[in-house]
Amino acid sequence: QLQLVESGGGLVQPGGSLRLSCAASGFIYNYRIGWFRQAPAKEREGVSCISSSGGSTNYADSVKGRFTISRDNAKKTVYLQMNSLKPEDTAVYYCAADLGLGSCRTLPGEYDYWGQGTQVTVSS
Question: Is the Cα dihedral 22, 99, 1, 35 positive or negative?
Answer without folding.
Answer: positive
